[in-house]
Amino acid sequence: MPPSEPSVLDYIKALLSLGRHRVPAIPALPAAGARPRVARPRSSDRARVTDLATVRPLPWRIAVAFALFLVGQTFLPPERGSWQIGLLLILLAAGITIWAAYEGEWRFPQLEKVALNHKALGFRRVPLALGLLFFGLTFLFSGGNRFTFLNVSFWHLSIAFVVAAFWQTRRTPRTVWKEWKESL
Questions:
Q1: Burial class, 92, CB count within 10 angstroms (exposed 0-12 / middle 13-18 / buried 19+)
Q2: Burial classification of residue 149, based on how many CB atoms lie within 10 Å of its CB (0-12 exposed, 13-18 middle, 19 or more buried)
Q3: Are 61 and 96 in contact (CB under 8 A)?
Q4: DSSP state of 117
Q5: What is the 3-state secondary structure (H, E, C) of the chain?
Q6: Are residues 128 and 161 in contact, defined by beta-carbon separation less than 8 angstroms?
Q7: What is the dihedral of CA 7, 10, 16, 20, to 10 degrees?
Q8: Tens digit of pLDDT for each residue in 102-131?
Q9: Is 154 exposed, middle or buried (0-12, 13-18, 19+ CB in 10 A)?
C-alpha cells in the first residue's frame, strides 16, 4: 500500500475522534473496465509460486476425513443408541485418510539440510536423572485426587530439573546461579 493512501484504521480513527483529527481523503476508484496496475512478480518469484502450487494441492480429503471423524464421534455415546452410524462414519473417515496418504496429501515439505550444532542436541545427565527421579516420586505420592505439599513439591522439582537438563546456554550453571542471586 502506498504511503499516501490511508489505511482503514486511520480512516475509522479520524471519524471516531469527533473532529480532533482530519479525515483522510479517499482516492477515487478507477473507472469501470479499467484494470488496476499491479506489480508483476519477478521470474524467480513466479517459479517459486508455481512450484508451491504443484507441490501442495488443496488437502480436501483430509478436511473431509476430519469432518467425518467429528460427526462420527457425536454418534458414539451409548445413550444415543446409534453407535453403528458413528462407527460407519469413522471407518469411512479412516478410509479417506488412507486414500489421502496414498495420493500424497500427507507429504511434508522437504526440509533444507542444515548443519546442526552439537551443543543444541546435548543435555545434562545429572539434572535429567534427578528430574526423572522426582517425576517418579510425584507419581507415587499423588493419589486419591489430592494435592499435598509433598507431591506438589516433587512435581515442581521434577519440572525444574528437566528444564535445567535441557537448558541451552554458554554460561555455566554456577555463573547463572551467581547472577540470579545477585539480581535478588
A1: middle
A2: exposed
A3: yes
A4: P
A5: CCCCCCCHHHHHHHHHCCCCCCCCCCCCCCCCCCCCCCCCCCHHHHHHHHHHHHHCCCCHHHHHHHHHHHHHHHCCCHHHCCHHHHHHHHHHHHHHHHHHHHHCCCCCCCCCCCCCCHHHHCCCHHHHHHHHHHHHHHHHHCCCCCCCHHHHHHHHHHHHHHHHHHCCCCCCHHHHHHHHHHHC
A6: yes
A7: -150
A8: 887 777 667 777 666 655 667 889 999 999
A9: buried
Please tell me what DSSP assigns to residue 38: -
Q: Which range among 9-18, 21-30, 56-65 shows the weakest confidence by mean pLDDT?
A: 21-30
Place of cell 462414519: 89
Closest residue by Cα to residue 65 from 89, 41, 39, 93: 93
For 27: left if phi > 0, alpha if psi spans -120 to 50, otherwise beta; the answer is beta
Structural contact between residues 68 and 89, judged by C-beta atoms closer than 8 angstroms: yes
Cell of 50: 508455481
Q: HSE-up of 120 (CA within 13 Å, CB side)?
A: 4
In this prediction, residue 40 carries a pLDDT of 59
Grid cell 469432518 — which residue? 67
